[in-house]
Amino acid sequence: LIQLFRPLDVLGWVYRTIRQGLIDMAEMFRLIDTDIEVKDKPGAPALIVRQPGVVFDNVVFGYDPGRTILNGLSFEVPAGSTTAIVGPSGAGKSTIGRLLFRFYDPLSGRVLVGGEDITQVTQESVRAAIGIVPQDSVLFNEDLAYNIGYGAEGADQAMIERAARDAALTPLIDRLPDRFATMVGERGLKLSGGEKQRVAIARTLVKNPPILLLDEATSALDSRTEQEILATLRRIAEGRTTIAIAHRLSTIADADNILVLDHGRLVESGTHSALLASRGLYAEMWARQANENREELPVAEVAG
Ligand code: ATP
What we know:
Layout: H1 2-5, H2 10-17, H3 25-31, E1 54-61, E2 70-77, E3 82-86, H4 93-100, E4 108-113, E5 116-117, H5 123-128, E6 130-133, H6 144-149, H7 157-166, H8 170-175, H9 193-207, E7 211-215, H10 223-237, E8 241-245, E9 257-262, E10 265-270, H11 272-277, H12 281-296, H13 299-303
Parallel strand pairs: 3-8, 3-9, 6-7, 7-8
Antiparallel strand pairs: 1-2, 1-4, 4-5, 9-10
Helix pairs in contact: 7-9, 9-10
């Protein structure tokens, strides 16, 4: 989430002000309403998503005049499929997320959600269609039900319990005498990194968005917990359109399509095996990461 918010200096302020906030983007926008650069077109209708595909159509974008970050980027994420975005640091991966969430508008080109140009509909309706599982999440000093339901207006107990089950939080909740009424946060139950991530997933599921944006959602976890969370993410991605921004390629190798970005351009795309076979930038990044992983392992394990 921090990655996606880097453009806003106000982020630091918001973060300090609401220290315990497990804030998703929509909430963040509500909080910083006056700082939003992008405005709705007068009389813009709400987006109605029937087929939740995402299209970037020849998008040119830069934060500063004279320096473009995305240079005529085009790609399509068909409804219901999973696309991963990878590439070297600074390639523009998080910028894609920011444009999709309409933090900014492209200088030229279009971003389409469900076939609609997102500049022609309300920002609120675009953001309601997209659920974000951020890198890191902070919890409120409130009970579990509140932390899961927060951000989804009108979430009732049944919706919260279903989301918790789908996020695989049930084993944790079954161990707690007060179950969903258990207080969490600084003065309550301390959750592990993986449990916090599951609360963030449940919170996204309460929104039931047709589109998911995963921002390297497992980066802070140990490898076993990461595998478990990845399995949950895979399950909740079923039937939704998913865009996963990733640094570690091992987490996205099974995506339907992988976009390889370099200097704001799409340099390669395809499945993991097709990209390895084509021996380009992806294959190079894969080899480098495999090497790094090997170096991190104890000598005996490498040998074995
Ligand atoms: P990383 O893998 O390091 O997270 P990334 O591929 O996600 O990188 P982006 O965060 O999209 O890259 O940034 C792309 C480029 O845009 C970088 O050169 C970055 O410095 C620049 N950039 C990002 N945010 C801003 C901003 N608010 N103002 C000016 N430049 C920015």
